[in-house]
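dude i think i finally got it to work??
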Amino acid sequence: MYAVANIEKFTQDYPDLFIGTGQEVVARAREFAHAESGLFTGSAVSGIFQNPMFTMLFVQTVQTNPTHIDLFKDACRTAGLPT
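look at this
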């Protein structure tokens, strides 16, 4: 699972990859995410980014970057899920 907050941060961290498309990517993430928690499954990532390279970079970044891990944990806590 991942959080919309991860997508928002990722698009901000890599603005050169998302010139003019960052908001569209975030909007797609919100479409895939649970409305209240902002969480979505890993299988949704490829549909959100629509680019295999971006998908791979996102997954690697979120799983290894402490800030991204904290964003995910915060979303889980907000949703009442264990972290």
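The longest strand covers residues 2-3.
im so relieved honestly
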